[in-house]
Write a structure and sequence with these properties.
elongated; about 270 residues; single chain; five-stranded mixed β-sheet; alpha+beta
């Protein structure tokens, strides 16, 4: 009797069925979509409170604001963590309605106190270095009185330049070199060089107006800091304001002399882009 051959059973394909893989991908995409919707419409209040508490304890802002900016835990980890605070604050206001006006004002106060604390510390360091370099009689140093964002170094234009000219005087270079040494200690910080003049119109020379003269003086000062002191061009900006930002009355010679000046602004790390 002839036996019939036994039909071999086909093995099932290994792994999950193809339809299940596609279905799983779809479910993951839907989950991500709803998570994004939730994230855009809600703020993690607990995380927000933790950030505020961390900033408060680091700066002691809410308890009087007397701690140095260098003593906080966040600052020891790197001030750069606060560089985007302004952007975070703006975006937060656009994405949630859960924070009331009082909390927003508290955040504004927090940022203002952080600016003030760091700028005051910078001011102390710069004035100390100025004294070490015997620059006290050449420089006027002060802090930004509006927002506390920078330290201002004011240098007389007659000290640095001849009348109607933009080239730094040879006898001024040793002084300006020491100013550059001070600026170098703030590597990576935003530096702004601003030229100013009095309101006496220019009648001769290569510059057609006070705007051009003040701009050329600011550029030459910035180029010295870049070429001689090695400060990165990406951190320096130069501006010519002419006679439009006087600090004294131009009706007197003493006032005109004060208005002819170079301002150097060293912005704190919270305002360095």
């Amino acid at each position: 009797m002839k036996r019939l051959a036994r039909k071999k059973t086909e093995e099932a394909p290994k792994g999950a069925p193809e339809w299940m893989t596609t279905f799983s991908d779809l479910m993951n995409l839907l989950l991500c979509f709803f998570v994004l919707l939730f994230a855009m419409s809600n703020v993690d209040q607990e995380k927000f409170d933790q950030v505020a508490a961390s900033l408060s304890s680091s700066f002691s802002i809410f308890s009087g604001g007397k701690s140095s900016i260098g003593d906080g835990q966040l600052i020891n980890m790197g001030v750069a963590q606060l560089n985007d605070f302004n952007q975070y604050f703006s975006n937060m206001g656009q994405t949630t309605e859960s924070i009331d006006g009082e909390e927003i004002e508290q955040l504004k106060q927090l940022l203002a106190e952080a600016n003030k604390a760091e700028t005051e510390k910078m001011y102390d360091n710069i004035t100390e270095m100025s004294a070490q370099y015997n620059l006290d009689k050449y420089l006027d140093i002060e802090t930004d009185k509006t927002g506390g964002q920078y330290v201002l170094i004011n240098i007389s234009g007659s000290l640095l330049y001849d009348s109607g000219k933009a080239k730094l005087k040879d006898e001024a270079l040793p002084i300006f070199s020491k100013v550059g040494d001070i600026i170098k200690t703030y590597k990576g910080y935003r530096i702004s060089i601003i030229g100013h003049t009095d309101n006496v119109p220019i009648t001769s020379g290569i510059y057609r107006s006070n705007k051009e003269l003040s701009s050329a003086r600011a550029i030459n000062a910035a180029e010295y800091l870049i070429d001689v002191k090695g400060i990165s061009p990406s951190n320096i900006e130069w501006i010519g304001r002419g006679e439009y930002d006087p600090i004294a009355d131009n009706s007197s010679e003493a006032g005109k002399s004060k208005n002819r000046r170079i301002e150097i602004r060293i912005y704190n790390s919270l305002n360095t882009n």
